Amino acid sequence: MGTRRHGLIRARKAAGYTQETLAIELGLDTTTVGQWERGKSEPLPYKRPKLAKTLGVTSRGLEELLAEGAAVVSRPSADYETWADDLDRVAVCLGRQEFDLAKLLLDRWTGRLIPSGDDRGLYLYGRSLRLLGDLRQDQGVLTGPMSARQSYGRAMAVFRELGADRRVAQLELQLAVLDEMGGNHEPAAEQYRQLATDTRLDARDRTRAQLWVGTALSKAGRNADAITFIKPAIRQFEALEEPQDWSVAFQKLALAHRGDGDLSQAGVAFQVALDHRPGDAPMQRVRLDTAHGHLLLSDPATADSGLKLLEGAAATSTQYGMMHQLQAISGIRRAYERQA
């Protein structure tokens, strides 16, 4: 399965140039060749003779390549409608932790169809890479080849080329999440703190960044500081009418109060989260039951119930391949056994 490509792309590759090296050879800004190949601009007349010579084509041949490229860029692609529909399906699959189907849908495009150089194709390609990163993150594959970090990095390069600043900032936020998940809590908190006021992000993403400052600080043992970030985030989520984020924030607040030694306030906050469950998807159930089990282990009278909740959460994590969640549950169990 494939797609026609701008004639300049084929000629450039045949001549052994990358976009950057061709631009340098012609004395141009390194983004200019990419603009030509996406059909956003064309070489100026006085540049065309040198471009033709560099590519090893005649002047007439260059004009034919440019004409062919214009046709490719301007032609709407029915495949792109299907691609966009598949990405919507992937987002639904990830919400249900249906990882195998999500990967199958993504492989149709990232593995077989190369964007033809137009902005829409590149945008869909960037979205595909972002969703692939989300899939890997949910599976706990954070670093290395075929990891969330690799996919997010590739997506960021695409969106930077497109000038999609909001998408770039969202990916910076996701990379900070990976740092936190990898145990780099203080650096992640600092990245979140900067993104919480970044105007490239919308209000919801900025508020999530503020909440996650608290999450990272709580994991770093700075629970009193964490609470000062989590409480304003809760109020902001309420103002934004984001009930799922609002409920999750109460889970985070409960754990911060627990870490700060205030089990009474922890119980109050967690009851709010229980009364306003964010949903019943496997990931949501596991996160809620893990937090609940963690709290129950704090009291010897409820510790057995806490262990049962963690056992069920571990079984669900194993069933759906959520390895990071399973590792977190194992860590809670080990900490409890050391203290017991």
UniProtKB/TrEMBL annotation:
It comes from the Bacteria. GO terms for molecular function: DNA binding. Residues 8-62 form the HTH cro/C1-type domain. CDD domains: HTH_XRE. InterPro entries: Cro/C1-type_HTH (IPR001387), Lambda_DNA-bd_dom_sf (IPR010982), TPR-like_helical_dom_sf (IPR011990). This is DNA-binding transcriptional regulator, XRE-family HTH domain. SMART domains: HTH_XRE (SM00530). Keywords: DNA-binding. SUPFAM superfamilies: lambda repressor-like DNA-binding domains, TPR-like.
